[in-house]
Amino acid sequence: MNAMMNRSLLPFFVIGLLACNPPKAVVVAPPVAYAPSVIPDPEAELSQMGVDAVLWQSTSAEVYWIYQQAYAHAKEKLAKNLATESAKPAAVVVDIDETVLDNSPYQVGAIRNARTFDQADWKVWTDKASAAASPGALDFLLHTKSLGCEVFYITNRDIRERASTLKNLNDLGFPFADEAHLLLMDGASDKTERRANVSATHRIVLMVGDQLRDFDERFKDRAANYGKGVVDAMADSLSNYFILLPNPMYGTYRDAIQGKESDAERLRRTEEWFQRNGK
Ligand SMILES: [Mg+2]
């Protein structure tokens, strides 16, 4: 073959070679979100520590039933407490997150992306106004309304989340989902003042929340025995006027161990706790 023929036949020659020896498929590995052995990343490690809690909260039949059980119990308490006469109109106070709305999809996304809680990420979630109702919550609050009792939502969602929160509650059919009955966080997470504002005009006959602080700010103190002594001291009022729902995904219990500083510091304190307490 002369040089001209060589050039003109070259493409066919290459195709023939490829047909006999097809190139091996190139396997591209998916991006790795969590690889602590390669790159130490406190945020990713803390995020992974929440896996069991988030799986339990978002998928378990146990949680599905515990919420319904708790709200059935709430109906009994409500009937009992409404039997007492008062000059003021009666009101039930509920928290929102992990009480009447289920934010576990946000928590699942945070773990998928190796993220810990982030206010901007959270607002992207609440802007969607797409949280589902917690099991039993809607039925209980419609029942509350049918008894002539008002509902106040006291939440530590930020005041900038007012519109999306009202939309989410209204889309799901929750009663009293209006500006007058929604008390958002404007600065402090302490709900004492907002509860007092409701008490000024109403008789609070029952409260529901996933944190003991939804009932009383004294439960912020976890210094002695993780705050269990405060529970003992307030057992009567807790029993009569509060319904507690489960939430292992976040809360005062975890802050008491980890603090609320950087992810690195929270991770360090967590590891230190296990070092001290493991047998
Ligand atoms: Mg809550």
Short description:
It is built from 13 helices and seven strands. Helix 2 packs across helix 13, helix 3 crosses helix 4 and helix 3 runs antiparallel to helix 5.
Structure description:
With 279 residues, this protein is of the alpha/beta class. The protein has a single domain, classed as Rossmann fold (3-Layer(aba) Sandwich), CATH 3.40.50.1000. It is 51% helix and 11% strand. It has 13 helices and seven strands. The strands form two sheets. Strands 5-4-1-6-7 form a five-stranded parallel sheet, sandwiched between helices. Helix 3 packs across helix 4, helix 3 packs antiparallel against helix 5 and helix 4 packs parallel to helix 7. The longest helix is centred in the N-terminal third of the chain and has 22 residues. The chain is globular. The structure holds magnesium ion (MG). Magnesium ion binds next to loops.
